[in-house]
Amino acid sequence: MIKIIVYLKTVNKLGFINSLLVFYYRIFTHSKLAKIYFPQKLYKEFYPVFLPSYKKKTVLKSQRIRIIECADSILEGNVYYYSRHKQYIGEKPDWFLNPFNNKTFKGFRKHWSKLNDFSSETGDIKNFWEISRFNWVGTLVQAYAITLDEKYLQRVNLWISDWSKKNQPNTGPNWKCGQEASIRILNLILAQEILNPNTVTNDLLDYLEIHVDRIMPTTFYAKAQNNNHGLSEGCALFLSGYFLWKNKKRKKYFSVYQKGLKLVEDQVQELILEDGTFSQYSIVYHRMILDLLSVVELLRKEWGLNLFTDSFYKKVNLAIEWYSSMIDPISGNAPNMGANDGTYLFNYDQKEYRDFRPTLSLASALYNKPMSEKFVTSHNLIEMFKIPKIHLENKSPKSKIFSQGGYLKLVRKDGMALLRAPKYFFRPSHSDALHLDIWQDGINWIRDAGSFSYALNKHELDSFSGTKGHSTIQFDNRNQMPRLSRFLFGDWLIPSHVEFSKSDNRMSASYTSANNNYHSRCVNKTVRGWTIQDEIRGEFKIAVLRWILNRSDWAIKGHIISNGKISLNIISNYDLSLKLKNGVESLYYMSKRSVPILEIKCSTGCSINTNVSFVA
């Protein structure tokens, strides 16, 4: 009965209409209607999709070298998964092979509606989707554009032709998700614009039409999720609709373009809060939506289309400001908070996955948003499309509160502390209330465990997205909110208070859980570092304060843990138990490693002060 009440309360938070649409979609995909509405068909072989160009692109020498190196690596049979894992796939990829366990997707001849996302036999479906997003198309096309060496273009056409033969429409895992079809569309249209905007093959047009037919009918489901799916599909329909209408002059595609335009406008207004926070509370997904919106604005300008609304540009600029506030200016890295699924769109020159500055540079240039000179770096699309230089500002990072999204940030020289308040306007995918990230001199000293993979069992999930995977307090080995599914928690926490004082260098927040356990955290800047004051009370049997630490040689002496560069001094009005344990963290999707975790246990309400000091 309690679980039913939790579900009903969560449905109310998610929105009854959205929940009903998701429920309807799941019934639809499990019925025979899905196979009727999305018939499995045999299509012709698509070859060639792209024709040669006769005009070279000029880029800086450093960019030319980098692109050619990446493209030559692909010709040698190597592809990067999640912008991190170099995998050998040979002359032609096996589109249904999971390279992380060498297992083949067994249902690749079935209708997409009959397939599971996470199979115990073959693993995470994202490992099959990744190569079918066609990021490699952009790399090879850019190499061809700057060299006119046809070996790059031949490989593009060969692989697309092979993909089309092996992935007949509505058959297999690569047609299961409208967002995945959308990302393919965007990479193909970008490739065409890089090569030769005025010479388009019928095969490319037919290829795009098939993808539009997959995306259009289920955008209601993408919207109902209130995440990146609706925006991805809106961007794809906006660009492909106009592209097809321009080349085929059929009213049907002008309607697709208009639908995409409305979807992009609506999703930006609904999913980006007034403080710039995106609905998924994730730096990686925030990067994804900025990359999507950057490509949309890039091609809107290239094609001479009308401007979006003023409110659209206002929201995008707020999102850029939020994103820049999260990036460490020394390393270009950012807190690993929220879901991290390995996405880095349009990373054609294989930039470091955890360098968030290239996306900021591209978005700032396209949306005329001034950015700090400390964040300036290159992005392959800036050079390829000769995008005008960014307006730079000589400004230092500032302390700031993002009151709607629930992020409080204090800065010190070459460092910052970021506190996660439990303000969930949209569904939280991590149980991370009062998590604290601490950075100094480009190093993330106190951190978040990340995500690793979505295809984990409950116990494994809790080590990452559960409370255990965050630098906060956990009561009785439970998540702060009950897990209802892989991506959903119930009984969303509401903060008892949130306070922020820039002048006093102080921030704090608190909550009371459904189990009536109370946690308050206050962070103050000091001369040598930070003081964190945790207050807890309730009817718990055991409470554990975890500090997930940077990999280093830590040693405990009394109530002080130190590695020679930073020390944590634990002070309390209660006799505490301190232990240094081995835990796990994931900075990259499908990659995890051991990290030290300081665990501080107590069995009654108390105050715990953690004094963080950096060695001068």
Question: Summed up, what is this model?
Answer:
The chain has 616 residues and is α+β, with helices and mostly antiparallel strands. It contains 17 helices and 27 strands.
Describe this entry's structure for a reader.
- α8 (178-195) runs antiparallel to α9, α11 (228-248) packs parallel to α13 (283-303) and α13 crosses α14.
- β5 and β6 (123-124) form a beta hairpin.
- It contains 17 helices and 27 strands.
- The mean pLDDT is 95.
- The protein is of the alpha+beta class and 616 residues long.
- It is globular and about 75 Å long.
- The strands form eight sheets. It has an eight-stranded antiparallel β-sheet, with no helix packed on it.
Strand content: 15-25%
Order of adjacent strands in the largest pleated sheet? 17-18-19-20-27-24-23-22
Strand tally is 27
- Uncertain segments of ≥5 residues (pLDDT<50)? none
Going by helix content, strand content and strand pairing, the class is alpha+beta
Helices, by number, come to 17
Mean pLDDT across residues: 95
Gyration radius, to the nearest Å?
Answer: 25 Å
Which of globular, elongated, flat, extended, rod-shaped describes the shape? globular
As a percent range, the share of helical residues equals 25-40%
User: Terminal Cα separation, in Å?
Assistant: 56 Å
The largest sheet, given as strand count, sense and whether it forms a barrel, is: 8 strands, antiparallel
